[in-house]
């Protein structure tokens, strides 16, 4: 399973990229707004750090506007992936951008039939938001299972990019289900590395080492 970092924070991206953990990055307008920079600047800087798909989301809600924005954003770097919402216009824009060999990430997916439509429209990635479904008392990971089954039934090449990830358990089950990509917030990627037994075990080893002869 590929790991994308779900952030627009360049320091976090540099930190985890230096560890070789990142296959790509996802941003959204909320994440970009936190940086105080323009979308173009944010995406340009990320592309200099990570050599993999970098998602940049359009703001237009009509097909023509999304295509125009997508074409502009795609000029920034070959790795830029255009994020469009899973609306009728978004699917239309996805189709046209895909036909121009531009990678598209269809975002804000909440049902498996929406994911089916995105695959038909030529999406490179589908982004089901599992945490937001969990927040409503639904089972976000069941959506990933359903999409995996549907895409495998018909050998759709669209990659399942698990989004709205809130915990290490989300990452664990995304990998068990066979998601192609999990986009993980910096906080969760940090949690994945930690275990109290690692810390106490290391402390004990270091303490015992002090008793060793030189
Ligand atoms: C990434 O592509 C999504 O925009 C992001 O994972 C949404 O996460 P949230 O539900 O925590 O805002």
Can you describe this structure?
This protein has 214 residues and is of the alpha/beta class. The protein has a single domain (2-212), classed as Aldolase class I (TIM Barrel, Alpha-Beta Barrel), CATH 3.20.20.70. Helix content is 54%, strand content 17%. The chain contains eleven helices and eight strands. An eight-stranded parallel barrel has the order 1-2-3-4-5-6-7-8, surrounded by seven helices. The N and C termini lie far apart (44 Å). The model has no long low-confidence stretch (mean pLDDT 98). The structure holds erythose-4-phosphate (E4P). Erythose-4-phosphate is lined by residues 6, 26, 28, 107, 127, 129, 131-132, 163-164, 183. Residues 6, 26, 28, 107, 127, 129, 131-132, 163-164, 183 line the site of erythose-4-phosphate.
Architecture blueprint of SSEs:
Blueprint: E1 2-6, H1 10-18, E2 24-26, H2 29-35, H3 39-49, E3 54-57, H4 63-74, E4 80-85, H5 88-99, E5 104-109, H6 112-120, E6 125-128, H7 130-135, H8 140-154, E7 159-162, H9 168-177, E8 181-184, H10 186-193, H11 196-211
Parallel strand pairs: 1-2, 1-8, 2-3, 3-4, 4-5, 5-6, 6-7, 7-8
Helix pairs in contact: 1-3, 4-5, 6-8, 8-9
Bound molecules: erythose-4-phosphate.
